[in-house]
Amino acid sequence: MLLMLIAYAGSYSIAIISVQKYCEDTFQLVSTNTTSAKKDLTTAVMSLRKLDSLLLSTTQGPCEIQLHLGDITKLSVEDKVDLILVSAFPCDYTVASQSLIKSLYVNLGLSVEKLSRDKYMDLRKYYSCWLSKTLPSHLPFARLACFERRGNYVNPIEQIKDMFRAFMPIFNSQDTTVITPLLGAGCQNFDEILVLNTIIEAACNWMRIGLPLRCLKIVLYDKGSSKITAINEKCIGEFAKLKKKWETPLVFQMLKKIHDVYISYSPNDADTAEMLVTHFVTSNKTIKVFSKRIQNKSSKVWPEHIMSAMSGCKRVLVILTSSYLETKDCLDEFNIALCHKRQAKELKLIPLYIQTLLNLPPVISNVQYMDCRLNEGETLSEKLLTVCEKLITELIIAVYIDFGLLVTIDLSMLIHIYLSIYLSIYLSIYLSIYLILSISTYLSILRTSIYLSKPILIYLSIYLSIYLSIYLNLFIISLSKPILIYLSIYLSIYLSKPIHYLSKPIHYL
């Protein structure tokens, strides 16, 4: 009995230990799976996710604006872009909390302060930004552009206008992809919806006139929570509305030429512009010149009035001075003229060098200019008169060339119409004759075939009768075989009975 109790207690202890070990293993497995699931969820949330995209049709090909959610530093190398945008206070690249500059430093080891010491291009004098040198290849961005505030922006419109104004010298006429946060929505506390609207409006308008911005990725920052914040939800809904608005096909109208020459100048150079207009009018009154000074409203991100006035012009003259480069509206006019030049080959952008300027951005210095700087004994009026006479000669020659092309096109159309009529008449006559000959030939062949058909029919009838008779005989023979077999079997059975009766007496004997 004692041995039985000891054995029972031992087995009970072993069972308890087994159950305990099983529970521990199960708990550890559940904990591991839970931790893994949380890690996967955190990774999914922290990664950069594409939410929506806006496709825009332009004369240069399709362009795209994408909306992303997450951390901009989580962009994969496979989706590498040409340029990332950051904003900062002038010469202040402090790694502040909740700033993109901090995220770049913590997550990617990229120091904006270090990049600022060795810039590729310093455009802060005219465009409020600087461009870094090429970044290491393992990063998902090729370069970094840092925009520094000039003064206090009361709204994001001026800051975003500065951003797109700087794209022309940064892109340098090369197709470019850009990724950006909602600039100013962080430390500057600008309204996110207003920033999103302004960026998309500016991007769509600039893309449509030829800015080489192939793809713009806008990132809504998310801290990594599993639930999308209320403000990001509003931005996603606003993007859907803007997508519906801008993806609607634009009905292009023929641009009617209103002016031949557009003069772009700063308010400080108004006297020089007036002198140019006077020389144009006195030299040739048929040349239409636009010289009205246009000032863009601070509440408008897109200078629509400049675009309308410049459309259809053959020449855009830029009175290039230091005042011109310091005037934002003038830089907008220069950029719009560059975009027009990419689409309209007949348009010429001609900077007039009135004074010597150093350290010009390549986007301006690379454009062929006319030197109007004064030598000893020369006056500005004489220089400008020479410019006007040369341009008027070019415009007149262009008009004659256009007229010659129109005359050539008209003559070619007349020749084409004459040839088409002549060929249609000739072909109709030829086809009529061909049809008549074809019908007569067909009838003669038909008569000949009827005449020749008589002996052929007799021969065919004899041949077919012989062939059919042979075939029928063979068929009858093939059918007769089972009948003969059946008859032979039947007769053998029938005749076997009397033979059987006759054989009985013989059997008894």
What summary fits the major beta sheet?
A: 8 strands, mixed
The end-to-end span amounts to 105 Å
CATH topology of the domain at 46-246: Leucine Aminopeptidase, subunit E, domain 1
- Under the CATH scheme, the architecture of the domain at 46-246 is 3-Layer(aba) Sandwich
- One letter per element, helices H and strands E, the order comes to HEEEHHEHEEHEHEHEHEHEHHEHEH
Name the CATH homologous superfamily of the domain at 46-246: Leucine Aminopeptidase, subunit E, domain 1
Major β-sheet strand ordering: 1-2-8-7-3-6-5-4
Q: Helical content, roughly?
A: 55-70%
- In DSSP terms (H or I, runs of 4 or more residues), the helix count works out at 13
Structural class: alpha/beta
- The pLDDT mean sits at 77
Radius of gyration: 46 Å
Number of strands: 13
CATH class of the domain at 46-246: Alpha Beta
Note the overall shape: flat
What would you note in describing this structure?
Among the domains are: 46-246, Leucine Aminopeptidase, subunit E, domain 1 (3-Layer(aba) Sandwich), CATH 3.40.220.10; 261-373, Rossmann fold. With 509 residues, it is of the alpha/beta class. An eight-stranded mixed sheet has the order 1-2-8-7-3-6-5-4. It is built from 13 helices and 13 strands. Strand 7 (176-181), helix 6 and strand 8 (213-221) form a beta-alpha-beta unit. The model is unreliable at 1-19, 26-45 and 499-509 (pLDDT under 50). Helix 5 (156-171) runs parallel beside helix 6, helix 6 runs parallel beside helix 7 and helix 8 crosses helix 13 (380-508).
